[in-house]
Design brief:
The structure holds two protein chains of two kinds. Chain A is mainly alpha-helical. Chain A folds into two domains: 71 residues, Winged helix-like DNA-binding domain superfamily/Winged helix DNA-binding domain (Arc Repressor Mutant, subunit A); 33 residues. Helices cover 63% and strands 5% of the residues of chain A. In chain A, helix 1 runs antiparallel to helix 4. The longest helix of chain A has 31 residues. By secondary structure, chain B is α+β, with helices and mostly antiparallel strands. Chain B has one domain: Alpha-D-Glucose-1,6-Bisphosphate, Chain A, domain 4 (2-Layer Sandwich), CATH 3.30.530.20. Helix content of chain B is 25%, strand content 44%. In chain B, strands 1-2-8-7-6-5-4-3 form an eight-stranded antiparallel β-sheet, covered by helices on one side. Chain B is globular, with a radius of gyration of 16 Å. The chains are: A mainly alpha, B alpha+beta.
């Protein structure tokens, strides 16, 4: 189900270590060993985090059998940025409709006769 | 003047804040939110049919409305927790397609004087993941398109 895949992306990014890994991968590709360096965790733990990011489609592994560098799939982020922009645009469009309605509405509330 | 709607995702709590100013006094902006006939005229995109199932805007009341387009119908519902005339509406909001994602919404109507109003609406959910999902999909339009694109991306 598509909703599950969307959830996977957000779940993958809910973890601070994974967010940090993604931030570093945004600068350049890195091997698992390089990614593990700054953390007080095992390479296995980093591999686990990578698996979550990979399942969410956020990163991919290079074909180079020796290094298998981790690569960030930036398009997923473009998609998320677009969603936020769309949310803003839709809010603005909704409020422009409200602007138009407010112009048409009488100043008096027809139900109470009170001036507004 | 905040002529354009400002959307801010809070970094500390899973909350989205939308701020917008209107050239109308608070009572009028408030009425456009509480009168179902008026509400129906602006909340949904014009090309979508908007159907109000029920709308009882008072403390303890509830609402449900359906936006339809291209044969797809999207239901939204919630409860009005508190309704303070021309000042504040506190309500829950959920998209029936994601029933576990319930948002607590507060709409503050601030009187700016000279017949102007600043509307600050906040949506609070129970996880950052839920908040980001809400921003991504809490809009009826484009969500299918977004999912389709994500599908294509994830399928590669």
């Amino acid at each position: 189900m598509p909703a599950d895949q969307l959830s996977r992306v957000f779940a993958a990014l809910a973890d601070p270590t994974r967010r940090d890994m993604v931030a570093r991968l945004a600068v350049r590709d890195a091997t698992v060993g390089e990614l593990a360096e700054p953390y007080q965790v095992t390479v296995q733990a980093v591999s686990k985090h990578l698996k979550v990011l990979e399942d969410a489609g956020l990163v991919s592994r290079g074909r180079d059998a020796q290094r298998r560098p981790v690569h960030l799939e930036a398009e997923v982020f473009d998609l998320m940025t677009k969603w936020i922009e769309r949310y803003q645009r839709q809010a603005e469009e909704r409020y422009q409709r409200l602007d138009a309605l407010l112009q048409e509405m009488p100043d008096e509330d027809p139900t109470t006769g009170e001036r507004q | 003047m905040t002529r354009k709607a400002e959307v801010v995702s809070d970094p500390d709590v899973p909350l989205v804040r939308i701020t917008r100013e209107f050239d109308a006094p608070p009572a009028k902006v408030f009425r456009a939110h509480t009168d179902p006939d008026l509400f129906a005229q602006w909340v949904g995109p014009s090309k979508h049919a908007m159907k109000i199932d029920y709308f009882d805007c008072r403390p303890g009341g509830s609402y449900r409305y359906v936006l339809g387009s291209d044969g797809n119908e999207y239901g939204f519902r919630g409860c009005f927790h508190d309704v303070r005339p021309n000042e504040l509406i506190v309500q829950t909001f959920s998209f029936e397609g994601m029933p576990d994602g319930v948002a607590l919404e507060k709409l503050h109507f601030e009187d700016l004087g000279n017949g102007r109003t600043r509307l600050v609406s906040t949506s609070l959910v129970d996880s950052f993941e839920g908040r980001d999902g809400f921003v991504a999909s809490g809009v009826e339009e484009g969500v299918q398109e977004g999912y389709r694109k994500l599908d294509e991306l994830l399928a590669r």
